[in-house]
Write a structure and sequence with these properties.
Blueprint lengths: L1 H10 L1 H36 L6 E5 L10 E2 L2 H6 L4 E11 L9 E5 L4 H4 L2 E5 L7 E5 H7 L6 E4 L2 E10 L3 H4 L2 E4 H8 L4 E2 L1 E6 L5 H11 L3 E4 L2 H7 L1 H35 L1 H9 L4 H37 L12 H27 L3 H6 L2
Parallel strand pairs: 4-9, 6-8
Antiparallel strand pairs: 1-11, 1-12, 2-10, 3-4, 3-11, 5-8, 6-9, 7-8
Helix pairs in contact: 1-12, 2-9, 2-10, 2-12, 2-13, 9-10, 10-12, 10-13, 12-13
């Protein structure tokens, strides 16, 4: 039967290709959205755990955590709490590195644990007024070593060292002195977030509840899921993925149904002949349904390829390229493939029934 399915699709190659391309576009969009969403979650997890922090304190009700504004003095207040071992303020500069706009610059307190926990792999950890440390990923991207110059906004900084933290978000960025970052951003005394290290024996959930109660106007983020939920981009991607998935099933299913229904109408005598030579109705239905699934698989395969290629373009279109690198996962590819197969099944059910509902003897009698 497989050979017959391939032959029938090849006989109408143009129509098959048009249907497959329509399915491919839907599957590609789903895969790209899921990849951007996965990249967003990975970046968000890094944002929360900068310097191996347990929690991140951000301003409440902002469109995105990176747009948060807090007083840097909040760190000193937090360190007086018995459930906090250390707290350090950080100011994030987005699209500040001229050579690589996707890199994030972290203004850090040189005495804070975020800076001190970075493992220096080349050079020294000195920051100062005009020093910058590059994450090893960014250093490799810029081909920069200690002594090189990097332009951050309109100011030149000298690379003092290269560091590694194991956090993608940090290793693809750079660190400068908090005061220098505040001057560049014209936000003296401000921070984007305060990274918090909890005291030993303190329960994570209990600390979040206590901090949320004692710090009105802030949001306490402890996991990547918290950060994604806090950002408008995360909600946008989640809703867009669900919407596109539903549209792909509806539009793709209708496209396959239309294509296969036309094929059934054109081949009624052929199907009647198969019935006359002993084919059961279930076998005829399986043939028609198989053609629909084969068309969808062809479209899904093309869609997976387009989705992987197009994830970066979609990332730019959604405006999250500065903080997110698309992350294609086996799960996103699998979900795209499942939707493609579902389109073939849904779209092939009516034509399959239609192909077995007309009397073979009646059609052959008209010949």
């Amino acid at each position: 039967m497989l050979g017959l399915v391939v032959t029938n699709l090849w006989r109408h190659a143009g129509r098959t290709a048009a249907t497959a391309i329509g399915i491919a576009l839907g599957v590609a969009t789903i895969v790209a959205l899921l990849s951007v969403g996965s990249g967003l979650k990975r970046s968000a997890e890094g944002l929360v755990h900068l310097g191996q922090a347990d929690l991140g304190i951000f301003q409440a009700k902002v469109a995105d955590p990176t747009a948060s504004i807090l007083p840097a003095s909040l760190a000193a207040r937090l360190e007086r709490r018995p459930d906090v071992a250390a707290a350090t303020p950080m100011l994030l500069l987005i699209e500040a590195v001229r050579q690589d706009p996707a890199a994030v610059v972290f203004g850090v307190d040189p005495a804070g644990f975020v800076h001190n926990r970075a493992v220096v792999t080349d050079g020294t950890p000195r920051l100062g007024a005009d020093g910058v440390m590059l994450g090893d990923r960014l250093a490799a991207e810029l081909r920069a070593r200690p002594g090189a110059e990097v332009k951050i906004q309109r100011r030149r900084f000298v690379v003092s060292g290269v560091y590694h933290t194991g956090v993608y978000f940090e290793d693809a960025g750079a660190m400068i002195d908090l005061g220098a970052a505040q001057r560049l951003a014209h936000r003296r005394g401000d921070a984007t977030t305060v990274a918090v290290q909890l005291a030993p024996e303190v329960h994570h959930a209990a600390a979040k509840r206590a901090l949320r109660r004692d710090l009105p106007g802030t949001q306490i983020i402890g996991t990547g899921d918290d950060a994604v939920r806090a950002g408008a981009n995360g909600r946008l991607i989640g809703k867009a993925t669900s919407l596109v998935g539903a549209l792909a099933l509806i539009v793709g299913g209708l496209g396959v149904a239309n294509t296969m229904a036309m094929a059934v109408l054109e081949r009624q005598r052929e199907l009647a002949l198969l019935s006359a030579v002993g084919w059961r109705r279930t076998r005829i239905a399986a043939l028609v349904l198989g053609e629909g699934i084969a068309t969808s698989l062809l479209g899904a395969a093309l869609g997976l390829l387009l989705g992987v290629i197009g994830a970066g373009k979609l990332n730019d279109a959604l405006g999250v390229s500065a903080v997110v690198s698309p992350h294609v996962t086996v799960r996103s590819l699998w979900q795209g493939l499942v939707i493609g197969v579902a389109i073939g099944i849904l779209g092939g059910l009516y034509p399959a029934w239609r192909g077995t509902s007309v009397s073979g003897a009646k059609l052959l009698g008209r010949a």
